[in-house]
Design a protein that fits this description.
Immunoglobulin-like; 0% helix; elongated; PKD_6; Por secretion system C-terminal sorting domain-containing protein; Secre_tail
């Protein structure tokens, strides 16, 4: 194509991608094969020339953090396996079929020391105090007897308390609370935290052994 700008004829050469959109084979998703539940997971798609939008799809029980519309997506994994997909659009098309990456999720508590560890955090949602407790039983023991305390909570005979430390993060990864158990128990004051989703990490002898999603909600309606 030529035009005269007043300074002589100028020739412009235009190129196109053939007038079509991308296909799912153009944008494979990169991400983890395995992850621990309630931890951050990161996904990405290729930087495609002409791309105008990256539309991400993720499991409903996972938590969105940031990145929708861009090449990079950050989520908090849920408690079940999930597939994260993306559809890439350009000026010619809204995007083809999504490309997916499947991540296997593990929520198994860490063991060690000849026993299998178990951790509980309640109430959840919490409004003032979050109580975290630990116990250890011999691995493979399935014959525990259960009694009930005056408070209505079950107490299993033969459970041994173990010490642990915790860290509590916002969904964006900011550390807001930390603490150390006494007698295998810890009461965490969350009354000054804004309502929202938090990530509780539990450590045994400095090693991360379990992660839980905690909800802080001040306007809890009593049962």
């Amino acid at each position: 194509m030529s035009y005269d700008s007043g300074c002589g004829a100028t020739t412009i050469t235009a190129t196109t991608n053939g007038g079509g959109g991308f296909s799912s084979s153009d944008y494979p998703v990169t991400g983890p094969n395995e992850a621990v539940c309630w931890t951050r997971v990161y996904y990405s798609a290729p930087d495609l020339p002409g791309a105008t939008n990256y539309q991400w799809i993720y499991p409903s029980n996972w938590t969105y953090v940031e990145g929708q519309g861009t090449r990079f997506l950050t989520l908090i994994a849920g408690s079940t396996n999930g597939s994260v997909g993306v559809r890439v659009a350009n000026g010619c098309d809204a995007g083809g079929s999504p490309a997916f990456k499947t991540t296997s999720i593990s929520c198994s508590p860490g063991g060690g020391g000849g026993g299998c560890s178990s951790y509980s955090a309640y109430p959840n949602p919490a409004n003032e105090q979050l109580r975290v407790e630990s116990s250890v039983i011999p691995c493979g023991n399935t014959t525990l007897s259960t009694n009930f305390s005056d408070s209505g909570r079950s107490t299993e005979e033969g459970l041994e308390k173990e010490e642990f430390t915790i860290k509590l993060f916002t969904a964006l990864g900011k550390l807001v609370k930390s603490g150390r158990s006494m007698g295998g128990e810890l009461n965490l004051d969350v009354s000054n935290l804004p309502d929202g989703i938090y990530i509780l990490q539990i450590f045994k002898k400095g090693k991360l052994v379990e992660t839980k999603k905690i909800i802080v909600q001040k306007s809890i309606i009593p049962n």
